[in-house]
Automatic annotation (TrEMBL):
Gene3D superfamilies from the UniProt entry: 3.10.50.10, Glycosidases, LysM domain
GO cellular component: endomembrane system
Protein name: LysM peptidoglycan-binding domain-containing protein
Organism: Candidatus Mediterraneibacter pullicola
GO terms assigned for molecular function: chitin binding; hydrolase activity, acting on glycosyl bonds; oligosaccharide binding
Length: 370
């Protein structure tokens, strides 16, 4: 069901070979110019009425902001079981802060599709994660009680199915208190019929160093949450050197470590729905990669006569191109890399996968999930 374009291929020829109409290939793969396909491009080939079931009983989910385009959300929802609404915040006093845009339409759209909407709680302050907010919260029981009470009231009033806690850059000294807070949220939510997951940065050992990971204890959080979401992406990132956003060999290491601390049925693996475009040569501290969507990446390759390669170890597509006298390299996701990630989820019997995020088009991905 995956066809990799060869040099000289045309959509008409691919259609003849596969017995799938050109219009269907164009629609499913969101091809902007039917006269132009890219060597190395992976195409989803589904006959009219044919369906896939890549998740095969696992739980697919995805994060979205309330300002997501309704059409984009509509493309994804039929393939999902969870919709994570990003995000609620809180003040130093423990007051819950709603998203800037009303999310009720998303909650309604989710339930109409049989998808469970979850409230996401983050320590966002002025557009960034604030570990001082976390510190005040986890060290003060009165602030915790106030916030948890307001969270429960909001979940009940707005029709959420539960809560996802996404605290990043937790201070090392707050490691145990943070896990305890997650446990308190879970206890209160479970009593009222709601579930709680917690998002964690990728780790490969208990004593791993780094601002992102030292305050996160996989074992403790696994004991205190109904599910743990592994944020297995951002190896390739805005300010880092060019590489795959979620190289499968690196993702596997995180999953294997997590399984030594958390049961498989509580683990959810992260999947990126985006890529990066780096201008070369890369200079640390100077180069800033641009975020690109996966469909957009193929368009960039087509516009610049690039050939898409596929890294077998990372299980990720990439290409180089030259524009305005400058060299670029792009790493992104395609249906091959997505299939590889879901194969890993099934290999380790994890409970599901969640996409960060649903804000960019990727119709072929949702069609593959079924």
């Amino acid at each position: 069901m995956i066809y990799v374009v060869k040099r000289g291929d045309t959509l008409e020829e691919i259609s003849r070979q596969t017995q799938v109409p050109v219009w269907k290939i164009v629609y499913d793969n969101q091809i902007s110019d039917r006269n132009r396909v890219v060597p190395g491009q992976a195409l989803l080939i589904l006959k009219p009425g044919e369906e896939m079931d890549l998740a095969r009983g696992r739980m697919p989910g995805g994060y979205a902001y309330p300002f997501v385009e309704p059409e984009l959300l509509g493309q994804a929802l039929p393939a999902l079981k969870e919709l994570l609404v990003f995000s609620y915040g809180f003040t130093f006093e423990g007051d819950l802060v709603p998203p800037l845009h009303n999310e009720l339409w998303m909650i309604e759209a989710a339930w109409n599709r049989g998808v469970q909407p979850l409230m996401v709680l983050t320590p966002f302050s002025e557009g960034a994660f604030n570990n001082q907010l976390v510190k005040v919260l986890v060290e003060n029981e009165a602030v915790q009680e106030k916030l948890i009470g307001q969270m429960l009231e909001t979940v009940q009033d707005k029709g959420y199915a539960g809560v996802d806690i996404d605290f990043e850059y937790v201070l090392p000294e707050n490691r145990v208190q943070y896990a305890d807070f997650v446990g308190k949220v879970r206890s209160r939510m479970n009593e009222n019929g709601y579930r709680v997951s917690v998002a964690v940065p990728p780790k490969v050992s208990d004593d791993q160093k780094g601002l992102l990971v030292e305050g996160v204890d996989y074992a403790l959080l696994g004991e205190n949450a109904d599910a743990v979401f592994l944020m297995t992406y951002e190896w390739g990132y805005t300010y880092g050197p060019p590489m795959a956003v979620a190289p499968l060999d690196k993702v596997r290491q995180v999953v294997e470590y997590a399984l030594t601390r958390i049961p498989a049925e509580r683990l959810i693996m992260g999947i990126p729905n985006y890529g990066y475009d780096w201008q070369l040569p890369y200079e640390r501290g100077t180069t800033r990669a641009s975020t690109v969507g996966n469909v957009e990446a193929v368009d960039i390759a087509a516009e610049n006569g690039a050939v898409i390669e596929y890294a077998t170890v990372a299980q990720s597509p990439w290409f180089t191109y030259r524009k305005n006298g400058m060299d670029h390299v792009v790493w992104f996701e395609d249906i091959r890399s997505i299939e590889a990630k879901w194969n890993l989820i099934r290999e380790y019997n994890l409970s599901g996968g969640r996409y960060w995020n649903l804000m960019r088009p990727f119709r072929a991905n949702w069609l593959m999930l079924g």
